[in-house]
Each structure stands twice: as C-alpha cells, then as structure tokens.
Amino acid sequence: MWYYFRELDYPHIQEMFALGDTIARAAAMMTSTNLASVRILGSAWPGHFNKVIAEAMYENIKQVGLPQWSDADQRLAHALQRDIGAPDSGLATRLDTLRPALKPNERTGGGSDDIGDVSWNVPTVTLRFPSNIPGLPGHNWANAISMATPIAHKGATAGAKVMAMTILDLLARPELVTQAWDYFRNVQTKDIHYQPLIRPQDRPAIELNQDIMARYRPAMRRLYYDPAKYKTYLDQLGIAYPTVRGADGSCAGGATP
Fold first, then answer.
1. What's the CA gap between 108 and 8, in Å, rounded?
2. Residues 171-205: tens digit of each pLDDT
3. Residue 174: inside a domain, yes or no?
4. Strand-pair partners of 116
5. How many folded domains does the chain comprise?
6. Which of 104, 116, 186, 239 has the fewest CB atoms within 10 Å around its CB?
7. Contact present, 88 and 254 (Cβ < 8 Å)
8. Among the residues of the chain, which ranges form H helices?
9. Is the pTM of this model over 0.90?
C-alpha cells in the first residue's frame, strides 16, 4: 500500500497511517488471513528550503556566472535537442532569476532522496549545477550524454565555486547564520513540525536491488573511467567531440577544440 503526503497533511500523518494500517488488516480478515507485519520501505517530506541562504547563494551564482561554452558544446546541445524533439535552445547563456518561494500547496515534489526530510531539520538549500543540456526528459539516456563531455566538467566547476563561496559566507558572516535559523524557526517550522514516517524498526530495503546490481555491475565495471590511462572519458571510449547525428541518421565526430 502506497501513501503520498503533502506538507499540509503531515500534522495528521500518524492518524492517516493508522487508518491505512486498519484498512490493510481488515482486507486480510476478509480473506481469513492475518497481516503478519508492516514495514515502511521509504518516505519523503517535500522540501522547504531556506530563503536566506538561497538569496545569499544566488548572489554568488551571479558572481560566478555561467560557463563559457565552446562552439563544440553548443553544437552537441543543439543536435541532441533536435534529435529528441526538445526546444532547440542550446546551452544557456543567461542566468535564470531567483524564483519566488513556493506556496505550501505547491510543495508537492522533490528529489528522489531524503533532502526534503533534511530541510525540515536544519536550514537547507539545493543548487543545480549547469552541467546538462536544457530541455531533456530527466532520468533518460539523453541526460547521460553530457556527463562524459566538457559540458559537465565546466558546469561542475562553476557549481563548486558557488558552493565554496556560500560556505565561506556562512563561516565569515555570523549574522547570515542567525538569519537563516530565524527563518527556519519562525517562518518554516512555526506551525508545521517534522514527524518522520520511518520508525526505528523499519530497516533500509537494501535487498530490493541486489539481483539487478549482481546482473549489471560486471558489465558496468568495464566502462569505468581509468584516469591513469586516458586524459578524458571520451578518449577512453574512442569518441571524437562533438559527435552528432547527420540528416541521414549517421553519426559524425568533430575535432576536439
């Protein structure tokens, strides 16, 4: 049985879980069986990130700016976007503005990890590095392409600079830390308090992917990057950069700039 809780539901989470547990036990009784045990495999709160730190980080983003994309970087981006039917915009050359804070009823999603739970226990922000090609569908082969290219390296370098600058701000400006905690205590958690759904007896479900990993890990090892032998991962794969698909469907590589 699966549940999905929005932020506003959490004050009643224990009551909702108890109701679901009762339904499951009643369903078992209908078939003259018993519900032997209940195990929660995972849960995630929607993220609520710290406005004070986000604004400080955005100032650092403006200082660092976007990477300087080469013609080869843009050529690959445009080609992939056209190939999958995404907007043909290429790589971004202008920074986005800092978006307004989401309203409580708009916080209905988040990362596929526990970052949402973390954000309700300590002032938290997330940073998206400019390391991928815009307009791609997400967890998809298309999103993995740039990871082996200078696009990802340039974006990771820019993002690391922003992270380092923001950490220095927090260390050098005590008032920033005070303001972040003030927002956390008197705005974010003023009326809503964190209640974990995971219980002490609910152990991580590490067995779920054991068969998949046993099947594919050997094949993956053959593709691990070996920096002792190759300058870049593209060199290891024997791919000229950028490699794009031609009008006839064939692929052609260009010289690395």
1. 10
2. 999 999 999 999 999 999 999 888 888 888 998 88
3. yes
4. none
5. 1
6. 186
7. no
8. 13-30, 51-64, 71-84, 115-119, 141-144, 150-172, 174-183, 210-221, 233-237
9. no
